[in-house]
Design brief:
single chain, about 500 residues, alpha/beta, Aldehyde Dehydrogenase, Chain A, domain 1, Aldehyde Dehydrogenase, Chain A, domain 2, 2 domains, seven-stranded mixed sheet, six-stranded mixed sheet, about 35% helix, globular, binds nicotinamide-adenine-dinucleotide
């Protein structure tokens, strides 16, 4: 028996305006614009603030029965919503944008507390989410179909139709931005959307649900089902869901892609990464050092676009020394947040220990870092003289750790980068246009940077990697996102008998 409530205090504004510990409310399902407990007895999981390692909320884990309720609610809502003119659908996102701007500080503090990233990073994430919403606002201008007279008196037209009920499954590291990679295109495209956020960070999107309601989104167009693997599998299997977007680790991306595709659904599943930065001797010292440090330490290295391996070509010791000096000045707790769980901390430390045992040199050691009491801390760590057989050279570490591999030539650097099964991001640091062009033409990665360590293609460009970093076709944001969440109806019409007969007559 499902118990629901329209009481908006279930997701009332978060009170904290600083880092000090603050609890929040229990995370529930959002179905038909009501906060619902799971329909069958279920487990409850703690939501930890990683800064203190202490619970700030609980999440009630849903099941396949809750997915079914969300699909029923979405199916009814989608029938009416898809009939709204696209301009009216986009207007909801205009209002959402204003509400997000007005509540920017509160949303950022909530995100910072549930995820652990420092306030400036949390705020940047909400601002990036706002950019995604702005892209959704522009869709009426972009989604005008094409029409052409293909034969005398015969016109072909393309229009973008909604799919119906669609779903998105998101990771812990961007609780607000990653859901907003999907929601604007899917919802402005006329669909009803079911979100399954990471059970580690279920709180920010509860506030987003309330803001979407305030912005005028009809009940049932946006639903949330909280939970883990059971809910993900039910979303893949449910016959009423037409498309699944996923962002998370490669292991789960592969599973979700296979399972959803086997049910005949569209699936686009973004996975993990191992990003390489190639540094050559002519690189600008200041720019490179500042940028490399920001890339591997930002969000405590928990970004799928973070620098992971630095391929040092020839003598770049002066640049490496500057990278080390800058990274050593970072203060955990102030400039750097914690990692997500104790298990994540242990895994990262294990990687560093193993590299040291195998003969690599730890030139900056974050293993003993602490900040606030009880949290999950790893400080910036640089491992030099890494060899390609070490785990730190090829596995995703997902922490503030930079592995330096020394190589004699750019060709060898490209060879190492291209041997990685991943293909998310790759960057070159140089002041030579010729070197930049050659490297950009050769690396096997979907998002490439020249003197940029986090080469995220911002709106209106599409975000998406290659190889084991993405299963499915295309990018998840930008125009590809709109095409993923819609289907093209092709209409061919003729209004009068034509006398010049062709094969179309
Ligand atoms: P994860 O794969 O553990 O979890 C992602 C989602 O899948 C969560 O909602 C989780 O509940 C669910 N899930 C977990 N295990 C599952 C299972 N066995 N079956 C079905 N569902 C399952 O990822 P995470 O730890 O939350 O996030 C970090 C990972 O996400 C990193 O690998 C990172 O590189 C990747 N990531 C990739 C991108 C990208 O754009 N390519 C962006 C952000 C994060």
């Amino acid at each position: 028996m499902t118990v629901c409530s329209t009481d908006s205090s279930v997701a009332s504004p978060f009170s904290a305006t600083g880092d000090a510990y603050a609890p929040y409310l229990t995370a529930r399902n959002w179905i038909g614009q009501q906060w619902c407990d799971p329909s069958s007895p279920t487990t409850t999981q703690e939501v930890l603030n990683p800064r203190f390692g202490k619970s700030i909320a609980q999440v009630r884990m849903g099941s396949s029965a809750d997915v079914d309720l969300a699909v029923q609610s979405g199916a009814v809502a989608a029938r009416a919503w898809s009939k709204w003119p696209i301009r009216d659908r986009a207007h909801v996102f205009y209002r959402l944008r204003e509400l997000m701007v007005t509540n920017l500080e509160e949303l950022s503090w909530l995100l910072s507390h549930e995820n652990g990233k420092i306030f400036s990073e949390a705020k940047a994430e909400v601002e990036k989410g706002i950019e995604c919403v702005e892209y959704g606002c522009s869709l009426p201008n972009l989604a005008a179909g094409n029409q052409l007279e293909v034969s005398r008196g015969v016109a072909c037209e393309v229009v973008y139709d909604s799919l119906g009920v669609v779903a998105g499954i998101t990771p812990f590291n961007f609780p607000m931005m990653v859901p907003l990679w999907m929601l604007p295109q899917a919802i402005v495209g006329g669909n009803a959307f079911i979100l399954k956020p990471s059970e580690r960070v279920p709180l920010s999107t509860m506030r987003l649900a309330e803001l979407l309601k305030q912005a005028g989104l009809p009940a049932g167009v946006f639903n949330i089902v909280q939970g883990g693997r059971d809910v993900v599998e039910a979303l893949c299997d449910h016959a009423g869901i037409r498309a699944v977007g996923f962002v998370g680790s490669t292991k789960v991306a592969r599973l979700v892609y296979a399972r959803a595709s086997a049910q005949g659904k569209r699936a686009l599943c973004l996975g993990g990464a191992k990003n390489h930065l190639i540094v050559v001797p002519d690189a600008d010292l200041e720019l490179t050092a500042e940028n490399v440090v920001a890339s591997f330490t930002g969000c405590a290295g928990q970004r799928c676009m973070a620098a992971s391996v630095l391929l040092a070509v020839g003598d770049v010791d002066h640049i490496l020394a500057s990278v080390r000096d800058r990274a050593a000045r970072i203060t955990p707790g102030k400039d750097l947040g914690p990692v997500t769980t104790q298990a994540a901390r242990d895994r990262i430390v294990h990687f560093i220990d193993a590299a040291e045992r195998a003969g690599a040199r730890i030139v900056l050691d974050g293993r003993r870092a602490t900040a606030d009491v009880g949290g999950f801390w790893v400080g910036p760590t640089i491992i030099d003289h890494v060899t390609t057989d070490m785990a730190v050279a090829h596995d995703e570490i997902f922490g503030p750790v930079l592995s330096v591999i020394r190589v004699p030539t750019i060709e060898r650097a490209i060879e190492i980068e291209n041997a990685s099964p991943y293909g998310n991001a790759s960057s070159i640091y140089t002041s030579s246009g010729d070197i930049a062009r050659r490297v950009m033409a050769s690396v096997d990665a979907g998002m490439c940077g020249v003197n940029i360590g986090v080469p995220v293609p911002r709106e209106p460009f599409g975000f998406g990697g290659w190889n084991d970093s993405c299963f499915g076709h295309g990018n998840i944001t930008g125009w590809d996102g709109y095409r993923f969440w819609t289907r093209q109806r092709k209409i061919t019409s003729k209004w009068a008998l034509q006398h010049d007969r062709t094969w179309m007559s």
